[in-house]
């Protein structure tokens, strides 16, 4: 069975500017695939090429085995949902969902049956006669998705559809969208600059930077095994140091930071003594006031600047003694640290296998 989507060596240039640079990936049937990157990285241009609104300068886009070269948007087996949902306010929910079916000139009884069935699938049964202004933000999202899914596309394209929602609703809709995609089984290709959205919802994520894919992987691997410094910096929170390699032992390197601290860390590639590097460490990898008998730890003292209370996500903001590098240190839930106050001097540590080291850019 062919993949629902194949993109092969696709490039898009505008004059001298390359917006999408030799991108290749595939999306098997039924996957939730996200393209994650900062504003201006080329992700929306790539989505528009898949939808047919923009033609690639080079490369090939195939949907369920069919080459899309020259196929206009209305003839492609895809549908696109934007951040602004473009629902028709003068129509009922049923009329909004039926709009595409009516343009296909399907008969009235089939339309009514399909609308009722898709409303069941998006958990809005009995909403046929409601107007759009009677719906909550989350319900509007589901109506917009239902309007696309009722046309049975091979791929549903979503361009930052949660961006206009408030924070609490956005958190709720992340879970809703994941459940909905698993329930209906349609392939989703989702564009976002929000790494939390991509990690929570996706089976696979492509991290995009300056027109290219830096890494395509599962959310877990992107977080724990980034392939580049950009992925380490962009996906999740990280503490970062610049430094120089002092010596190497297999996959472990000894580093001296710009502030004179000495750390041991794993490296992603072979490094030579004297090589400039970037070192990354997750906030949750920091151990506060570690036991004296724990081996293989990088130990140092920090001064607490503030406590960032956020329930289960509470953290310390601190900096090493004699160094103004700002560090985030996660507060674990299985130990109490209520005694820690601003300006306290405490020992922290991290296992040498918890950090990850990359050659410095340039």
Secondary-structure map with pairings?
Elements (H helix, E strand, L loop, with lengths): L4 E10 L2 E11 L4 E5 L6 H9 L6 E6 L2 E2 L10 E4 L11 H11 L4 H14 L15 H13 L5 E5 L7 H18 L2 E6 L2 H7 L2 E6 L2 E6 L1 H6 L4 H6 L4 E11 L2 E6 L4 E6 L8 E6 L5 E2 L8 E12 L6 E6 L6 E4 L14 E7 L4 E4 L3
Parallel strand pairs: 3-8, 3-9, 6-7, 7-8, 13-20
Antiparallel strand pairs: 1-2, 1-4, 4-5, 9-10, 11-12, 11-14, 12-13, 14-20, 15-19, 16-17, 16-19, 17-18
Helix pairs in contact: 2-3, 2-4
Describe this structure in words.
There is one protein chain. With 362 residues, this protein is an alpha+beta fold. It is built from eight helices and 20 strands. It has helices at residues 43-51, 93-103, 108-121, 137-149, 167-184, 195-201, 219-224, 229-234, and strands at residues 5-14, 17-27, 32-36, 58-63, 66-67, 78-81, 155-159, 187-192, 204-209, 212-217, 239-249, 252-257, 262-267, 276-281, 287-288, 297-308, 315-320, 327-330, 345-351, 356-359. Helix 2 packs across helix 3 and helix 2 (93-103) runs parallel beside helix 4 (137-149). It is globular, with a radius of gyration of 25 Å.
Summarize the structure.
With 362 residues, the chain is α+β, with helices and mostly antiparallel strands. Helices cover 23% and strands 35% of the residues. The chain has two domains: 5-233, Rossmann fold, CATH 3.40.50.300; 237-359, Nucleic acid-binding proteins (OB fold (Dihydrolipoamide Acetyltransferase, E2P)), CATH 2.40.50.
Key words describing this protein structure:
OB fold (Dihydrolipoamide Acetyltransferase, E2P), alpha+beta, single chain, 23% helix, 362 residues, five-stranded mixed β-barrel, Rossmann fold
């Amino acid at each position: 069975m062919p993949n629902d989507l194949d993109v092969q060596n696709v490039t898009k240039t505008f004059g001298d500017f390359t917006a999408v640079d030799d991108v290749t990936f595939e999306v098997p049937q039924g996957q939730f695939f996200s393209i994650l990157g900062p504003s201006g990285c080329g992700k929306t241009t790539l989505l528009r090429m898949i939808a047919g609104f923009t033609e690639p300068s080079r490369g090939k886009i195939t949907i369920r085995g069919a080459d899309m070269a020259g196929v206009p948007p209305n003839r492609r087996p895809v549908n696109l949902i934007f951040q602004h949902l473009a629902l028709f306010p003068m129509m009922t929910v049923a009329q909004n969902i039926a709009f595409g079916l009516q343009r296909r000139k399907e008969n009235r009884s089939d339309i009514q049956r399909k609308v009722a069935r898709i409303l069941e699938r998006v958990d809005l049964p009995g909403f046929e006669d409601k107007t759009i202004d009677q719906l909550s933000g989350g319900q509007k999202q589901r109506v917009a998705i239902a309007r696309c899914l009722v046309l049975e596309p091979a791929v549903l394209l979503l361009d930052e559809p949660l961006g206009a929602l408030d924070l609490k609703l956005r958190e709720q809709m992340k879970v809703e969208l994941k459940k909905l995609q698993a329930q209906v089984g349609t392939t989703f290709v989702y564009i976002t600059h929000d790494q939390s959205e991509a990690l929570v919802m996706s089976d696979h994520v492509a991290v995009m930077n300056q027109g290219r894919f830096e890494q395509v992987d599962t959310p877990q691997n992107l977080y724990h095994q980034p392939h580049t410094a950009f992925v380490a910096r962009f996906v999740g929170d990280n503490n970062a140091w610049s430094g120089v390699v002092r010596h190497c032992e297999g996959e472990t390197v000894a580093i001296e930071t710009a502030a004179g601290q000495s750390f041991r860390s794993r490296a992603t590639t072979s490094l030579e003594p004297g090589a400039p590097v970037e070192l990354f460490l997750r906030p949750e990898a920091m151990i506060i006031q570690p036991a004296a008998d724990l081996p293989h730890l990088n130990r140092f003292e920090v001064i607490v600047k503030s406590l960032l209370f956020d329930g289960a996500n509470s953290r310390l903001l601190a900096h090493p003694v004699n160094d103004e590098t700002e560090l985030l240190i996660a507060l674990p839930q299985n130990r109490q640290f209520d005694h820690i106050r601003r300006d306290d001097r405490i020992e922290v540590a991290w296992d040498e296998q918890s950090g990850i080291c990359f050659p410095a850019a340039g």
